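Quick one:
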Amino acid sequence: MEIIKTANLTKMFGDFTANDKINMTVNAGEIKAIVGENGAGKTTLMNMLYGLLKPTTGEIYIKENKISFDSPTDAMSCGIGMVHQHFKLVPSLAVYENVLLGTEIEKKHKIGKKSFSLKIIDEKQEIKEVEELIEKYQFQINATDLIKNISVGARQKVEILKMLYRNVEILIFDEPTAVLTPQEIETFFVTLRELKKQGKTIILITHKLQEVMEVSDSVTVIKQGKVIGDMLTKNTSSKALARLMVGRDVLLKVDKKYRNYSKKPVVYKVENLTTINADNIKVVNNVSFEIHEGEIVGIAGVEGNGQSELLDLLTGILKATSGKVYLKGKEVSNFWPKKLRESKIAIIPEDRYAQGLCLDMLICENMIAGYHGNKEICKYGLISQKKMLDKLDCLIEDYDIRVSEKGGKISSLSGGNAQKIIIAREFDSDPDMLVAAQPTRGVDIGAIEYIHNSILGLQNTGKSILLVSSELSEIMNLSDRILVMFKGEIIGEVDAKNATREEIGYLMAGIRKENDDE
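Output:
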């Protein structure tokens, strides 16, 4: 039975058509995947279904009833909820408080036969109702835990609970696995199947084709705002979907040439690096490793085991309490990001918007951010607008960055093209060393292929690279050696060429490889 139907749904922003006569149906109780490159119009379509945007033309039908939403509140009243890629939670509040935010339960008082509400929140009743919801969906989280103290995967469950508490029948997920580790992704799939079993309808916006094949019942492909494919998942393949999305065959695995770099000079050396957090806990504990000239060393691990803190130490955001970092024999410990870049260390940060780009600045300004003092652009403290725009033109062409307006802000770009701005900016600096954190997080398959090939291209020029990623396949495909972090320490090292997911998985769980000689 059809639960959602769109008829010639169109959304225009000025002269730009984001969605062009979209005709799509979603059946009740199915998991429907919506795939397409970044900027294809997937999120715009979902935002219309959720009441964040109003269609320019066309109709939306829910259970055969034509509807018109003015806000997400209208959508939720029709049984539609949305879990966004970037969670909308209050870190300082507890799980139950976030779930009921805006729909708080007030204490009731009775006098005789009359009852009335007091303007006091009934915390016990709120906790009870959220605990019952958690138990019903087997989410295995604690209703009273603070959001700031729980994992990313648990936070996603809180977002889902917010929607379930409001009795939605249809759940829309926008790139739900973009911030999850491999283990959390598997747990998320269990959650999706449980929701489906409970009668919910799921719409999944994603670019990860392996996940589409694993968990969805049907898939709709959108390209340049139009539906170009709609089929049952069992009747297609990852390669066929990639071809539809990008318009050409896409290499789902990079062509990596493995070499032994152990006899090459050491370019980057980390020695007994340690730091403590505000609670006096060693979040990075005695970490040591070396990276040789032209080598890619990957760091894997379940999120929350010190990778982010290690990156912060290496990129000048966090200060080490002990230990040293060297680049070509010169100490660069506790250098500020500006000084690191001057030392020829390029940085792709974990969060492109929080740490790598400024949404309110122009694309050209972001393209030189961190390098704006370079003499080729800046003289006597003044930035040459012409040289800045010339550089933008060159890098847009060299790195295949697609912009609708060169004079626009970074906020006008899709996630993949925003990430390419960082790639272009950092690679153009001709670094000796690249620290790349989550380089393909939240970007589409075409951009992933491009970024992976760009990283390998940089390696081929003899540059050294530290790659930290929660995508295990990315670490395994690009690295020459893989280090695994567990509870702030390097627990093991494997040769990437012969590594298996099982072997790395054991290390990620804190289980060291047995020594046969013992």
